TrEMBL record:
Source species: Albugo laibachii Nc14
Disordered: annotated segments: 157-202
Biological-process GO terms, alphabetical: endosome to lysosome transport; protein transport
Record keyword Coiled coil present: yes
Biased composition (Low complexity): 172-188
Record-level GO cellular component terms: ESCRT I complex
Compartment(s) where it occurs, according to its Swiss-Prot or TrEMBL record: Endosome
Segments forming domain SB: 297-365
UniProt-recorded name of the protein: Uncharacterized protein AlNc14C69G4805
Location, primary (coarse class): other
């Protein structure tokens, strides 16, 4: 049952988007509907005093009171304003066709508007459950409605109705003589004071509602300004970070420029040295390429010949191995040629080493 109430309430609230504290509204309405199941939530159009209207959440049904130790149900209607809980709900007594509002009731106007101290002195921590408790207590002393009189009854029935308690334990018809007999509690001065008290409380309730709306408007404006300031501060922080990155980039580029200038100077120096070398050696006769590769002396010629013979033996051994692998020569021929080439290669290597040693000695001697 509770889950169904929650689902119905959430469905209603999902179609209303004006409540600043929707979670608080949801919790208070749910607790009230759980305590008083006869109060059912719904959405409806509420017309304000200035003629404007809006969709609000309201609860309609009955609340219990105890009058002369008997229980009665008072039909009421609560409208939860958009500034709730900073402003109180707007409460009405909604009599049925068989009922009428008690004239000059101290807490209910002739239109059914309810004014009690709990509403006029509303605090943000007040709740709907406590409101119903106050209403039940106050209406238990003076019920706000009584049964509508039936004029077609005979005088005997009317007299009987005077002595019989109705559903709300009030006389269906109160004659002027009855009012005079009860002048101790409802004399003319008290009635006028009660009327003024209702008007004053209504004014205070409207004043509190206006103040709550202004507070909500100021709070929203302040929140918008705060959000804008936070956004601008975030932008300023981003700009400062970007400025730092740009400054670092400029410093890095300056260092690169200095390095490039130094490298340019070094390059110009090298270029000058190359030009100087070219000018120095360009005037000389052309070098004969063939003369460069010809050995300068007999030792060098013998060394080149010995090294050539060594490498030629190496190549011959490689191809002998390939021929043996392919079966082109018999194995005994292979061994004979390998022995011959290895000996020749060894002698060539020994000769080359000896010639190299002689060249080193000549260099040291000079």
């Amino acid at each position: 049952m509770n889950s169904q109430r929650i689902m119905d309430l959430d469905r209603i609230l999902s179609s209303i988007h004006i409540y600043f504290q929707k979670t608080r509204v949801r919790n208070d309405v749910f607790h009230l509907s759980r305590q008083i199941p006869s109060l059912l939530p719904a959405s409806g159009t509420f017309t304000y005093n200035d003629g404007s209207s809006g969709i609000l959440l309201h609860l309609g049904g009955t609340i219990p009171i105890y009058f002369h130790n008997d229980r009665y149900n008072i039909p009421v209607e609560f409208w939860v304003v958009e500034t709730y809980p900073m402003a109180p709900p707007v409460c009405f007594v909604r009599p049925t066709a068989e009922m009428m509002i008690r004239p000059r009731h101290p807490h209910v106007s002739k239109e059914g508007f309810i004014v009690i101290p709990y509403l006029t002195d509303w605090q943000e921590n007040n709740t709907l459950v406590e409101l119903v408790a106050h209403l039940s207590s106050i209406f238990g002393e003076i019920p706000p409605v009584f049964q509508r009189p039936k004029y077609e009854r005979t005088a005997e029935l009317e007299e009987k109705d005077h002595t019989q308690r109705t559903e709300y334990r009030l006389n269906s018809i109160q004659s002027d003589s009855d009012s005079q007999r009860q002048s101790s509690s409802f004399h003319s001065v008290d009635v006028e004071n009660q009327r003024n008290s209702v008007e004053e409380r209504a004014k205070r309730s409207l004043k509190n509602g206006v103040i709550a709306k202004l507070q909500l408007s100021v709070q929203r404006s302040f929140q918008d300004i705060k959000d804008d300031i936070d956004l601008q501060l975030e932008h300023q922080l981003q700009l400062e970070e970007s400025k730092t990155r740009v400054e670092k980039g400029i410093a890095s580029l300056e260092r690169i420029c200095e390095d490039l200038v130094e490298k340019e100077k070094a390059l110009k120096q090298k270029h000058a040295q190359v030009d100087e070398w070219l000018q120095k050696y360009d005037s000389k006769s052309q070098v004969d390429v063939d003369s460069i590769v010809v050995p300068k002396d007999s030792l060098t010629a013998q060394l080149l010949s010995a090294l050539a013979e060594y490498h030629s033996c190496e190549d011959a051994l490689y191809y002998l191995d390939r021929c043996l692998s392919n079966g082109n020569i018999p194995f005994d021929v292979f061994l004979k040629q390998v022995r011959k080439l290895s000996t020749k290669q060894y002698l060539s290597l020994a000769l080359a080493q000896k010639l190299a040693q002689l060249q080193r000695e000549q260099v040291v001697g000079h």
